[in-house]
Structures are given as structure tokens and as C-alpha cells.
């Protein structure tokens, strides 16, 4: 594709809106500079949440792991430290009984006056699941997630006590449950397995992807929306896509930073997670590594070497370039149908500041232009990134002066 291909007409697949997600970190540890402690640095945490609020982020994800801080408690703290940010609780169904999770989420929603969101993590690694006593095989875990979604929604809306006798959960006389602030809480589902698509398409309010090449993502969006329509849904799941942008004043400077970063990240990953090698169990990581093996660079600014350096352990594909190039790349994904864009960096707090100053305003300016005029501006054509002649040279010249 060339810059000339970016015509004024808004693609029929484009989302008319975009909201931004970050990930809240409880301490200064980063993949560039790991800190041995896993504790919460309260001063840092407060500053981080304030940075997201002031930077204009719409949501923040509170991640979950067997050795991490509890996502529910962190989400409650975020809610009280902010006025507008919507906390997304990452939740594994094996860790909290569904009626209890519904109660906890509704409580968070009441405390934040309707800002709560939940992201269900079915679990893609048997060893990590076993650390908290979950020995179900992966196919059964997705079936459990499906039952879990139904029970969350029923717990929030059922007007009278009800019984349940399912494959994974059984109880009698529950309810009416504690209600959310005003309406049912949005439920996000992610994953790349067939089971994930079936459950997410049929039942998710949001379906999440890691950053991948545009054409591949579009086919995956078509797939999840096709499942949604086949299940009788009239409201399709919103699409959430995640990137790790590396930005600087110019594309050339951004690539110098990117080459430095990937070297440091790879070295630290080898030290911190020496056993996280081999073929990952989860399909999302397998897919990310397949893209990385095929090419390091895709589309306008998508770089996969960061995924290869960490064995695709989590969302790890980067967008590299100037703020304008990266904003244009994000708009490419909006044009494919993404309405939720998660961006989090490698220098976590500093990157959150920079994204709020330089990325979010550019994307929102283009969205405002589209709403006002009914067409795209020339912004994407003016910042071609890899669609232009010089960008790939920067990408392959790590020692450029």
C-alpha cells in the first residue's frame, strides 16, 4: 500500500469512535529496568493513576496473575483516585465464585458510579492455572467461562432468588444479587482459540486482540462478528486491540530507541523468566510468534521483534515512529473496526505521559474531523511510515547515527 491509497472516504469497516485503555502499574518496575520487589509503591501508584486521568485515557486495565496484586482491590483504589477513568478488572473464573464476582463487581460499579468493566481471562497456561488449584483442561475452562458469563449477568438482573445446577457451578436460592450502578457491567473476553471466538462472539460485550497485521485482524473481526450474528445478536462486540508504542520526535529517533529497547528487554526477559521458552500453550502467543517469524515489520508501523524477544509472553507487538506515524497507524486499526485501543509502553510512566500529550490528541482530532465532515482528513496520507521510502531503512539500521 502507498500513501496515495488513503482516500478521503471513510472505510465502511471503520469505527466511528475510539476510546483509549492503559494498564496500571503498582510500582516502577519495567521490562527495561526490572525491580526485584513485587510490592505496591503507593506514591508511584497514585501518580500513575493521576497521569492516566490527566492524559485523557478512558480505561485502565488492572492485570491479574497468581503472584501479582489483587485486581479487584487495585480497581477499587483506581476508582477512588480518579473521577473519570473506568477500571477494568482482569478476572480468572477459577479464582472467584461467579455470584461473589458479580457482587464484587457491582460494588465497584456503585463506588465508581458506573465505571466498572470486567475482562475474563480463561487461562492459557496450565502451570499458571495450577498455581491456584485449577486443573481443568483448556477446553473445559472455556466452557466454564461461558457458564460464568451467564451467571454474572443473571446475578445482576434477576429480580428474585434463583437456583442453578450447571456443569461447573451449583447453588440454591441466590439473589436478588447486589445490583450495578445503573446497567449491567460490560464483559470483555479475549483469546485466539476456536472456543474463545465462539464464547466471545456469542456473549462478550468486548472482544480483545493483541496487535497484529491489519488484514489478519480484519479477518478475525469478521469471524467474531459472524459468530455474534449467527447467535442472534443485534449488538456486535466492540473490538479491543493492544499495542506497545515506541515513540520519539521523528521516525528515525523512534527506531533508534526501539533497537535499544528490544536489546534490553530481551536481556532482562532471559534473566527474569529463563524457563519461559519453547512453544507457548496459548494460541494468541503462538499466533504472535508466527507473525514475528514471517516478518519483523508490517503495514505502517507494526513491529514484531518485541514479541519475538519475549516469546510473545503477553501483549508485546509494538508500533514504532513519531507521534504522527503512530497515531496514523492507530487510525488504520480504527478503520478496520477497533473502537478500543490499548497502548502501554516499556518505560511505563514516562510513556503514559507522552501518549497522553502526543498520541491521544492526534487520534481524537482525526475522529472529530470525520464526525464534522463525513470524511477522512489527509493525516494518514501525510504520515506514511512504512508506506513511504525511508521508514524501512530506519527500521533495519540499529546503529544509525
Q: Report Rg.
A: 21 Å
Summarize the helix and strand pattern as letters: EHEHEHEHHEEEHEHEEHHEEHEHEHHH
Mean pLDDT: 92
List the total number of helices: 14
- What does the largest sheet look like? 8 strands, parallel, barrel
Strands ordered across the widest β-sheet: 1-2-3-4-7-8-9-14
CATH domain class name: Alpha Beta
Total strand segments: 14
Kindly, what is the distance between the CA atoms of the first and last residues, rounded to a whole number of angstroms?
29 Å
Beta-strand residue fraction: 5-15%
The name CATH uses for the topology is: TIM Barrel
Give the % helix: 40-55%
> What would CATH call the homologous superfamily?
Luciferase-like domain
Number of domains: 1
Q: What's the overall geometry?
A: globular
Which structural class matches the secondary elements? Answer: alpha/beta
CATH architecture: Alpha-Beta Barrel
Spans of at least 5 consecutive residues whose pLDDT stays below 50 are: none
Amino acid at each position: 500500500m502507498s500513501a496515495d491509497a488513503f482516500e478521503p472516504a471513510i472505510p465502511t469497516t471503520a469505527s466511528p469512535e475510539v476510546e483509549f485503555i492503559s494498564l496500571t502499574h503498582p510500582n516502577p518496575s519495567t521490562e527495561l529496568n526490572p525491580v526485584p520487589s513485587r510490592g505496591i509503591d503507593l506514591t508511584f501508584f497514585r501518580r500513575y493513576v493521576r497521569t492516566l486521568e490527566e492524559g485523557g485515557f478512558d480505561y485502565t486495565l488492572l492485570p491479574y496473575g497468581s503472584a501479582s496484586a489483587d485486581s479487584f482491590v487495585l480497581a477499587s483504589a483506581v476508582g477512588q483516585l480518579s473521577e473519570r477513568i473506568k477500571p477494568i478488572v482482569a478476572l480468572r473464573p477459577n479464582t472467584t465464585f461467579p455470584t461473589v464476582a458479580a457482587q464484587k463487581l457491582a460494588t465497584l460499579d456503585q463506588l465508581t458510579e458506573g465505571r466498572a468493566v470486567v475482562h475474563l481471562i480463561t487461562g492459557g497456561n496450565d502451570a499458571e492455572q495450577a498455581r491456584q488449584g485449577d486443573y481443568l483442561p483448556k477446553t473445559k475452562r472455556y466452557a466454564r467461562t461461558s457458564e460464568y458469563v451467564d451467571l454474572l449477568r443473571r446475578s445482576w438482573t434477576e429480580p428474585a432468588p434463583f437456583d442453578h445446577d450447571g456443569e461447573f457451578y451449583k447453588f440454591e436460592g441466590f439473589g436478588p444479587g447486589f445490583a450495578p450502578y445503573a446497567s449491567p457491567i460490560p464483559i470483555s473476553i479475549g483469546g485466539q482459540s476456536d472456543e474463545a471466538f465462539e464464547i466471545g462472539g456469542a456473549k462478550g460485550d468486548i472482544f480483545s486482540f493483541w496487535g497484529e497485521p491489519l488484514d489478519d485482524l480484519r479477518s478475525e473481526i469478521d469471524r467474531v462478528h459472524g459468530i455474534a450474528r449467527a447467535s442472534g445478536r443485534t449488538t456486535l462486540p466492540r473490538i479491543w486491540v493492544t499495542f506497545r508504542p515506541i515513540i520519539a520526535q521523528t521516525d528515525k529517533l523512534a527506531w533508534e530507541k526501539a533497537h535499544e529497547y528490544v536489546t534490553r528487554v530481551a536481556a532482562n526477559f532471559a534473566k527474569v523468566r529463563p524457563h519461559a521458552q519453547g512453544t507457548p500453550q496459548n494460541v494468541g502467543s503462538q499466533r504472535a510468534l508466527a507473525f514475528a517469524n514471517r516478518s519483523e515489520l508490517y503495514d505502517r508501523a507494526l513491529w514484531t521483534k518485541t514479541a519475538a524477544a519475549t516469546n510473545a509472553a503477553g501483549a508485546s507487538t509494538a508500533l514504532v515512529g513519531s507521534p504522527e506515524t503512530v497515531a496514523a497507524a492507530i487510525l488504520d486499526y480504527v478503520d478496520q473496526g477497533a473502537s478500543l485501543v490499548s497502548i502501554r509502553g516499556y518505560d511505563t510512566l514516562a510513556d503514559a505521559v507522552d501518549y497522553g500529550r502526543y498520541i491521544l490528541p492526534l487520534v481524537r482530532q482525526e475522529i472529530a474531523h470525520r464526525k464534522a465532515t463525513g470524511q477522512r482528513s489527509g493525516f494518514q496520507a501525510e504520515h506514511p511510515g512504512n508506506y513511504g521510502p525511508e521508514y524501512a531503512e530506519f527500521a533495519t539500521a540499529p546503529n544509525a547515527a
